[in-house]
Design goal:
One of its GO terms (biological process) is proteolysis. Belongs to the peptidase S8 family. The chain is 17% helix and 32% strand. It is α+β, with helices and mostly antiparallel strands and 854 residues long. The chain folds into 5 domains: 354 residues, Peptidase S8/S53 domain (Rossmann fold), CATH 3.40.50.200; 87 residues, Immunoglobulin-like (Sandwich), CATH 2.60.40.10; 88 residues, Immunoglobulins (Immunoglobulin-like, Sandwich), CATH 2.60.40.10; 107 residues, Immunoglobulins (Immunoglobulin-like, Sandwich); 83 residues. The strands form 11 sheets. Strands 6, 7, 8, 9, 11, 13, 15, 16, 19 and 22 form a 10-stranded mixed beta sheet that branches. Strands 32, 34, 35, 37, 38 and 39 form a 6-stranded mixed beta sheet that branches. Strands 24-30-29-26-27 form a 5-stranded mixed beta sheet, with no helix packed on it. The radius of gyration is 45 Å and the shape is elongated.
C-alpha cells in the first residue's frame, strides 16, 4: 500500500471532517514515490544537485527550492529514495503529501465578521487602500474581480498520473475553485461601494495558486509557493494559509521558519476537526499534528460563530446550527495536559518564541461561520470554517503593519503577533466577549484556555510612516572640509525631527523644519575613506523611517603623479613627433605641461585622448635633450616627471626609400593572386611607420594599389584574380609619401628579387617553378576541382583522365630522391620525370583553358 496521505478539507458548501491521512489505492512494490528533499544549508545549486540525483537513480525532478529552503521535489523508485539517505549533500527526505483547503463555503455589504471585530471603524471617512501586500497561498484569486486588488502571483502544480507526472510553474493563478477568492475578500476586499469590504480594504493581493479546481494540491507545491513568497519578502508582508491537515514534515516547517525570518507574518487556519492541534499525544512533530497550524512560527486562528456583527448573543442561529457569539465546535484548539505533578502544562509553554497567548498554540479567535465574501467568476458566496477565520487575522495584521511598519525578521514578526493578541478582546469580556448564559458556565473550550477575539483598534485614519531622502551630498561622491548634509522629509501628518548619523554615531538632530532639514558635518579631523550617512525621520506618532548613502571623504589632497611614455621618445627623433605621458590625481589633473630642457613645448588641459604634446624637432640642433613633463592638480600642486633623454638627428634621417621588395603568388582555384611586400626605411636604416606607398600593376594586369607601413615599416599590396594565361605580372613603386621626402634613387633590394622599385611576380603555374612537390599539389587541385567545377559541364570523363595522367606522372620512381621545390636533380631518372611533368602540366593547363576553364 502507498504511504501517500491526504489532509482534511472543509469545502465551501458544508462543513466536512475527513480522516487526515487516508491511503490511496494499491501500488506496485517498485512504483515511484513522491518525495521532498531538503539539502544541507551550504549547498549552492539545488537544480544541479536535483538533476544529478534523479539522473543517477531514475525518476522525475519536480519543484526547485532556493529561498525558504534549499532542495527539490521528485518522483523516484524506492531504491533510489533509499540511496538518498547516504548522500552527504542531503539533510532529509520526506514523502510528499496531498493537501486541501480548510473551508466551507449591488451595493456594498458590511460582512458580519468584519463588523464583529470592529472592522467598520476603518471605513469612516473617504475610502482608502491599505498600503500592505498580502499573499494568499490557496486555490488562486479571481484576477478580474471588481472587489479585489490582485497585483500578481504564480501557479505551482503537478500534471500527469502518479507514475509519470510533471511539476509546472506558470502565471495562470486565476481561481478555478472559489476558495482562494473567498479568503482574499475577507482579508482585503475593496471599500468601493459594491459587494463586500475586507478587514484591510484594498490591500494588494498576491495570488499564490497551489491548489487545483478541487482544492487539492501537493505539499511540494505548497512549499514551492512559500519559497516564491520568501523570494519576495521585501514586498510581501503577510501570507495567509487557509489550508492544512495532519502529519509531520520538518522540511515544511523549515520553509515556513525561513520565510518568517525574512519578515513575513504567516497566518494559518487552526483546522476543522474539533481536536487539539498537537493531537492526542500533545507532542510536537508526530503524525497527528495539524500542520501548518501547529508550527509556533505561524499565527494560528480558531473560529467562532457570529450572525449579527455584534456581541450579546442576540443574533439568529447560524446555518450550521450555532448560536450567535459562541465558539464553533468544529474548530481545532490548543490544549494543555497534566504533568507528573498534576500541573497543567503545554508544549507551547517553552516553544512559542516568547509569545504569550491565553490560547496557548492559538493566537486569536475570529469569525468563521456564515461569512459572506467574494467568490470566483466575479461572484460572492457564504462560507464557514477556520479557513474563513484566518483571513480576518491576516487583514488585522495588515492594518497593524500599515500603522506601525512591517517586520524585517522573525523577532519583529513575533512582536506583531503579540501586539495583536494583546489588542484582542478576552473571551469573557463583558462588552465584546462570547455568550455565557450562566456566570459559572465553563466556556466551550476543552482545556479552558480561551484565546482572545481579534480586534481592530479604534485608531482613526491610518498615520503612515514618514518618508526621507538625502539630497546632498550625492551617493558615491567625494567630499571634504565642512559639509552640509540636507534631506527632504514628509509625512501625512507631520515630521517632528530628523536625526543625522555618521557611521553609526549620531551627528545631531534637526527639529526645525522651517529652514529645511539639514546638519553641518565638520570632516577636517577625520581620516580619508568611505563614510555612511544615515538620516532618520520621526513623525508625530513616533514612527521612523531611515535612509542612507555612502560618500568618499578626501580631506588630504594627494600630490599628482606623472610619467613620460618612453616609447614616444625612443630611437633617433626627427621631424615632428608626439610626446605622451600618464598622469593621475585623487581630485583630478588640471593640466600636463611638456618641456625640452627648460623650454615649454606644449600644455594639455584635457585628458580626453590622453595627455600629449607635439614636438617639432627640426627647430633644434641635432643632439641629446632632456624631456620632462609636469602635472598640476585642482589644488595647484605640481610634480615633475623623471626626465628621459631623447636623441634628435634631423640631418641624417631626412629622407626615406624602399629598402626591400618581395613578391609571392598563390593559386586561387582557377585564378592566381600576386602579393608585393614593401619595406620603407629612413636614411639611417630605421623603419618608417605611417609612410603611404603607391604603385601600379602591369604586364597582363592594370590598376594601382596603395598601402600604409606599420610600426616595422612594412606594408603589402595584393592583386587578385589574375588569369592563368598571364605568366608574370609587375608591380612598380611610383611614390612614397610620409614623414620624410621620398628618395627613389636610394631604393634597393638586398636579396636581388628586384631593383628596389619594380618587381616581377611569376604565376604559381610557371614551368620554371614546377617540382615534384608542386606537381603533386597541382594534381590534388585538379582532383578536387574535378567534382566541384565540372560535374554539370559534360567534361567529367576527360577531366578525370587528365587528372589521372598528372597524378601518375607525379610519382617519383621507387628508391629515387628529389628535394621539394627544386628544379634540377642529379638523378637522371628523377630529372627526366620532372621534365615530363612540366610538359604534361603545360599541356593540361592549355587543354583546360581551351575548354573555357576559368
Amino acid at each position: 500500500m502507498s504511504n501517500r496521505r491526504f489532509l482534511s478539507v472543509e469545502n465551501l458548501e458544508q462543513r466536512i471532517v475527513l480522516d487526515a491521512f487516508g491511503l490511496v489505492g494499491p501500488t506496485l512494490p517498485n512504483s515511484w514515490q513522491a518525495v521532498i528533499v531538503e539539502l544541507n544549508d551550504n549547498t549552492s545549486d539545488a537544480r544541479l544537485i536535483g538533476n544529478d540525483v534523479v539522473g543517477r537513480g531514475g525518476g522525475q525532478l519536480g519543484h526547485i527550492y532556493n529561498h525558504a529552503i534549499k532542495g527539490f521535489s521528485a518522483r523516484m523508485p524506492m531504491a533510489a529514495i533509499q540511496a538518498l539517505q547516504n548522500n552527504p549533500l542531503i539533510k532529509r527526505v520526506e514523502p510528499d503529501i496531498q493537501m486541501q483547503a480548510f473551508a466551507d463555503p449591488l451595493t456594498q455589504v458590511l460582512p458580519t465578521g468584519i463588523d464583529r471585530i470592529n472592522g467598520d471603524q476603518q471605513l469612516e471617512g473617504d475610502p482608502i487602500a491599505i498600503d500592505v501586500d498580502i499573499a494568499i497561498i490557496d486555490s488562486g484569486i479571481d484576477t478580474t474581480h471588481d472587489d479585489l486588488n490582485v497585483v500578481g502571483g504564480t501557479h505551482f502544480y503537478t500534471t500527469g498520473n502518479w507514475r509519470k507526472s510533471v511539476t509546472v510553474q506558470d502565471n495562470n493563478y486565476d481561481d478555478d475553485n472559489g476558495h482562494g477568492s473567498h479568503v482574499a475578500g475577507i482579508a482585503a476586499a475593496k471599500d468601493n461601494d459594491i459587494g463586500v469590504v475586507g478587514v484591510a480594504p484594498g490591500a494588494r493581493l498576491w495570488s499564490v495558486k497551489v491548489l487545483d479546481e478541487n482544492a487539492n494540491g501537493s505539499l511540494s507545491s505548497i512549499i514551492a509557493g512559500i519559497d516564491w513568497v520568501t523570494d519576495r519578502a521585501e514586498t510581501i508582508e503577510v501570507a495567509n494559509m487557509s489550508l492544512g491537515g495532519l502529519g509531520a514534515s520538518t522540511i515544511y516547517h523549515d520553509a515556513i521558519k525561513a520565510s518568517v525570518e525574512a519578515g513575513v507574518v504567516y497566518v494559518a487556519a487552526a483546522g476543522n476537526e474539533y481536536r487539539d492541534i498537537l493531537g492526542q499525544d500533545f507532542q510536537f512533530g508526530t503524525s497527528d499534528d495539524t500542520i501548518p497550524a501547529v508550527y509556533p512560527e505561524v499565527a494560528t486562528i480558531s473560529a467562532f460563530a457570529d450572525t449579527d456583527g455584534k456581541a450579546g448573543n442576540a443574533g439568529p442561529v447560524s446555518s450550521l446550527g450555532y448560536a450567535d457569539d459562541t465558539f464553533a465546535d468544529f474548530s481545532n484548539y490548543s490544549n494543555s495536559t497534566r504533568d507528573s505533578n498534576d500541573k497543567l502544562v503545554s508544549w507551547y509553554d517553552d516553544n512559542n518564541h516568547g509569545i504569550l497567548s491565553p490560547g496557548l498554540g492559538i493566537d486569536l479567535m475570529m469569525p468563521g461561520v456564515d461569512i459572506y465574501s467574494t467568490y470566483k467568476d466575479g461572484g460572492y458566496a457564504v462560507g464557514s470554517g477556520t479557513s474563513a477565520a484566518a483571513p480576518h487575522a491576516a487583514g488585522l495584521a495588515a492594518l497593524y503593519i500599515a500603522q506601525n511598519g512591517r517586520a524585517h525578521n522573525a523577532e519583529e514578526v513575533y512582536t506583531i503577533r503579540q501586539a495583536l493578541i494583546y489588542g484582542g478582546k478576552g473571551w469573557r469580556d463583558p462588552d465584546e466577549g462570547l455568550y455565557f448564559p450562566d456566570p459559572n458556565y465553563i466556556p466551550d473550550s476543552p482545556d479552558n484556555h480561551t484565546e482572545n477575539l481579534g480586534w481592530v483598534a479604534d485608531q482613526g485614519p491610518i498615520d503612515h510612516a514618514p518618508t526621507v531622502e538625502i539630497t546632498s551630498p550625492v551617493e558615491g561622491t567625494s567630499i571634504a572640509g565642512n559639509v552640509e548634509v540636507t534631506v527632504t522629509a514628509n509625512d501625512d501628518v507631520s515630521v517632528t525631527q530628523v536625526e543625522f548619523v555618521i557611521n553609526g554615531a549620531s551627528l545631531g538632530t534637526d527639529t526645525v523644519e522651517s529652514d529645511g532639514w539639514s546638519m553641518m558635518w565638520d570632516t577636517t579631523g577625520l581620516f580619508d575613506g568611505v563614510y555612511e550617512i544615515t538620516a532618520i525621520a520621526t513623525d508625530t506618532a513616533g514612527q521612523t523611517t531611515s535612509t542612507k548613502i555612502s560618500v568618499m571623504l578626501d580631506n588630504v589632497d594627494d600630490l599628482p603623479t606623472v610619467a613620460l611614455d618612453s616609447d614616444s621618445l625612443a630611437g633617433v627623433l626627427s621631424g615632428t613627433i608626439t610626446v605622451t605621458a600618464d598622469a593621475w590625481d585623487d581630485r583630478g589633473v588640471e593640466n600636463v605641461q611638456f618641456f625640452v630642457g627648460n623650454e615649454l613645448i606644449g600644455v594639455d588641459a584635457s585628458e580626453i585622448g590622453g595627455w600629449s604634446a607635439e614636438w617639432d624637432t627640426t627647430r633644434y640642433d641635432d643632439g641629446l635633450y632632456g624631456v620632462t613633463a609636469t602635472a598640476t592638480d585642482s589644488g595647484q600642486q605640481t610634480v615633475i616627471s623623471i626626465p628621459i633623454e631623447a636623441v634628435v638627428n634631423n640631418a641624417v634621417a631626412s629622407t626615406m626609400h624602399v629598402a626591400d621588395l618581395d613578391g609571392s603568388s598563390v593559386l586561387d582555384r582557377n585564378r592566381w593572386t600576386a602579393t608585393t611586400e614593401i619595406l620603407i626605411q629612413d636614411a639611417q636604416g630605421k623603419p618608417v611607420e605611417g609612410a603611404t606607398v603607391t604603385g601600379s600593376w602591369s604586364d597582363g594586369v592594370t590598376g594601382t594599389s596603395e598601402a600604409v607601413t606599420d610600426v616595422d615599416g612594412i606594408c603589402k599590396v595584393v592583386k587578385t584574380k589574375i588569369s592563368t594565361r598571364t605568366p608574370t605580372v609587375r608591380f612598380n613603386v611610383t611614390n612614397v609619401s610620409g614623414p620624410f621626402p621620398y628618395a627613389a634613387s636610394d631604393n634597393v633590394d638586398p636579396d636581388g628579387d628586384s631593383d628596389g622599385t619594380s618587381i616581377d611576380i611569376a604565376s604559381p603555374l610557371s614551368a620554371s617553378r614546377y617540382s615534384v612537390g608542386s606537381t603533386q599539389a597541382l594534381a590534388s587541385v585538379f582532383e578536387d576541382t574535378d567534382d566541384r567545377e565540372f560535374d554539370n559541364r559534360g567534361d567529367e570523363p576527360e577531366i578525370k583522365q587528365v587528372t589521372k595522367r598528372v597524378q601518375a606522372k607525379a610519382q617519383v620512381p621507387q628508391g629515387r630522391q628529389m628535394q621539394p621545390q627544386t628544379r634540377q636533380s642529379s638523378d637522371p631518372v628523377v630529372e627526366s620525370t620532372a621534365q615530363e611533368l612540366e610538359s604534361l602540366l603545360d599541356d593540361t593547363v592549355l587543354e583546360l583553358l581551351a575548354k573555357g576553364w576559368k
